[in-house]
Write a structure and sequence with these properties.
By secondary structure, this protein is an alpha/beta fold. It contains 14 helices and 18 strands. Helix 13 runs parallel beside helix 14. The termini are far apart. It is globular and about 65 Å long. Helices cover about 35% and strands about 25% of the residues. The strands form four sheets. The protein has a five-stranded parallel sheet with strand order 2-1-3-4-5, sandwiched between helices. A five-stranded mixed barrel has the order 14-15-16-18-17. A four-stranded mixed sheet has the order 7-6-8-9, with helices on both faces.
């Protein structure tokens, strides 16, 4: 290793999977003696873990790479991840970037970086940013899961654990199957070893996450009844020291009576389910290539509510998809209100080159997207408050995570199993503790007062 290049600053863009991978890259560099510094500080090396889910994400990735270069003209600027995978030609032409590392090579970042540093001047003269084509691979042909494991994460009580990569769904608006490749699942034994390590280091809750989590164990097909996810959940829940298991985003089609019943039998699984909707209108869902109807989606929610007591159901919705009429948007609003989501992530459709949707007729003006987004966000806030109100004066379990000053008073902040944020008025440090009490009132619109 070149010892005079020691300080490294990371910046992450995108999803929880990206966040996990950045934590791993940071961990491996720390183990090799590098000093990790905040991204806003001057550093010898800048590593930007990029995102490419939309054109806006591409632009943000470029902006952060160029910002890194401005902070230190002599630094090594490394572009990593999905933007690199999809825009390799642009990366190679960008004079502000020194090294490019694609997906499924992040686990080797430390080795790749040190190989570059050994012959930095030579690579700079030749303009070789991929070490002779070895750091960006054809992800579509990749069949092996990229092995990573963490002992610590950015959070101190809740750990996100990546168990799956890739996607075979090919929604018409989404570039991710091209950026991440096909379905690849992590071995169950590897997951359990990581969970045991994290539990031993004080983590009480784990969140299982992936690019398409419901496809865990489905490398050879698309029959979600054969997903190995229930088996994985049961195994993780049995690890001593783990109090809670939470799930990342689920494919609605995985929800069956058998699936919900199996999950309900685990006393550690949180009743918090993120089922990505995208639209409550069948014609829009068809254009999106989502492979289910609004009615089928609603049936899945009803199954969860049959086996779990008032579970938190959260979702994603895209407004302004190509061709979306006022009537189709109103169908989505009516469906959202009927379903009664706890929280919604509202996205204005963003044209992504390389996807079928980008070429569709009937692209919606930004002004219309903005109005629809605002209307749906207002509805979402009403539904979220109603959901929280249901838990007022009820006994809940809270895992405390951090301290926060609110109106000049010190509170301990945590979340219930349903992911309702709760605050306890105390000077005692409760971080990492699981406590039972009652949610008394609204402290803030998104925080309920917790009485132990």
């Amino acid at each position: 290793m070149v010892v005079n290049l020691k300080s490294v600053a990371f910046h992450n863009l995108g999803c929880k999977v990206n966040g996990y991978e950045m934590d791993f890259m940071q961990q491996t560099l720390q183990e090799r003696g590098y000093k990790i510094v905040p991204f806003g500080e001057r550093a010898d090396i800048y590593i930007i873990n990029t995102c490419t889910v939309t054109n806006i994400a591409d632009r943000k990735s470029r902006q952060m790479l160029h910002r890194a270069r401005k902070m230190n003209r002599e630094a090594v600027v490394v572009a990593v991840g999905c933007y690199v995978q999809m825009e390799n030609d642009s990366i190679l032409k960008d004079m502000g970037i020194d090294l490019a590392v694609g997906n499924n090579r992040k686990k080797d970042l430390a080795v790749i970086l040190e190989k570059y540093l050994e012959k930095r001047e030579s690579y700079q003269r030749s303009g070789d940013k991929t070490l002779q084509g070895t750091t960006v691979i054809d992800i579509g042909k990749e069949k092996e899961y990229e092995a990573m494991s963490l002992a610590h994460t950015a959070q101190h009580t809740r750990a996100f654990i990546k168990v799956q990569d890739g996607c075979n769904q090919f929604c018409s608006y989404c570039i991710i199957p091209h950026a991440r490749g096909r379905i690849r699942s992590r071995k169950l034994d590897d997951v359990i070893r990581e969970v045991e390590t994290l539990a031993g280091n004080g983590y009480r809750e784990v969140v299982l996450t992936g690019i398409h989590l419901s496809s865990y164990g489905l490398e050879t097909g698309d029959d979600f009844s054969k997903s190995k996810l229930p088996e994985l959940i049961r195994a993780v829940a049995q690890v001593p020291g783990i109090w809670r298991v939470r799930l990342g985003s689920l494919e609605p089609r995985i929800i069956t009576e058998e699936f919900a019943q199996a999950l309900a039998q685990s006393g550690k699984l949180c009743a918090h389910f993120h089922l990505s909707l995208q639209s409550g209108c069948d014609t829009v869902l068809g254009r999106m290539n989502r492979k289910y109807t609004a009615r089928e989606y609603y049936e899945k929610v009803c199954i969860l509510r049959k086996y779990f007591d008032h579970p938190a159901v959260t979702t994603d919705v895209i407004v302004g998809f190509p061709g979306e009429s006022d009537q189709e948007f109103q169908e989505t609003c009516s469906f959202v209100e009927k379903t009664g989501f706890y929280e919604m992530h509202i996205f204005k459709y963003s044209r992504r080159k390389g996807t079928p949707a980008a070429k569709m007729e009937g692209q919606i003006p930004e002004e219309v997207k903005g109005k629809r987004s605002a209307a749906l966000m207002e509805l979402g806030e009403e539904l979220s408050r109603k959901y929280r109100e249901n838990y007022l004066h009820k006994e809940v379990e809270v895992l405390f995570e951090e301290e926060k000053m609110i109106n000049g008073k010190r509170y301990q902040i945590g979340h219930t199993r349903e992911y309702i944020k709760a605050a306890a008025r105390t000077d005692e440090d409760l971080s990492g503790q699981v406590m039972t009490g009652v949610l008394e009132s609204f402290l803030q619109p998104d925080i309920l007062l917790f009485q132990m």
